[in-house]
Write a structure and sequence with these properties.
The structure is a single chain. The protein is α/β, with parallel strands linked by helices. It has one domain: Zn-dependent exopeptidases (Aminopeptidase). Helices cover 44% and strands 20% of the residues. The protein has helices spanning 2-22, 49-63, 84-90, 123-139, 172-178, 181-202, and strands at 26-32, 70-74, 96-103, 113-118, 145-150, 161-168. The chain has a six-stranded mixed β-sheet with strand order 2-1-3-6-4-5. Helix 2 (49-63) crosses helix 6 and helix 4 (123-139) packs antiparallel against helix 6. The longest helix has 22 residues, at 181-202. The radius of gyration is 19 Å and the shape is globular. The chain starts with a helix and ends with a helix. Bound molecules: zinc ion. The site of zinc ion has 5 residues, from loops.
Amino acid sequence: MRAVGLGLLILSLLGVWGTSQTTPITIVAIDAGHGGDDTGSIGIDNLFEKDIVLKIAHLIALEAVSFPHIKITLTRHEDRYLSPKERIQNAQGAQLCISLHLDFSYDPWMHGITILMPTKASQATQALAEALRHSILATTKGLSWKTKTAHLWLRRLNIPAVQINLGFITNPEEARKLNQLPYQKRLAHAILQGIDDFLRSQF
Ligand SMILES: [Zn+2]
């Protein structure tokens, strides 16, 4: 019995090693837009875009413990202005990048999440956007949705990279949700799930 037990132990250890060897760690840069004097959009109740996206970036880093093969690196950790050049430097070594922003409109009814891809996005970037679209839609049912391309500094990273505008800070209902921890956590988890789904589709 002891020999069998030892054999099982060895097999399970091999399993652990095998798993860690075959599941590569992917480094994902999460870029919280704006910071410091650059507040980004200012919305309902004097909410600042720079603060909400930084909170969600931190939550993504925290929630990533549930995704052992995803390692999060943040381009900014605190309320500080960064140039695109500094953001690119801080994302060095990452294999994916997701930039977080909010939308602004003078029309208080405008709402919904938008994914932006750099123009001439690679197939991998398109696949990442699609995976994020699925996972975020599952979390934010009923919101309008569109994916569009834009000129973004992200394309200079030469890795799959998208920008997500997580809602309108000028829509009273959406701004209220975006300022609440449970909704921020749901968005953070949905983004991680989308990254995870994308990575699984690539192997
Ligand atoms: Zn922004």
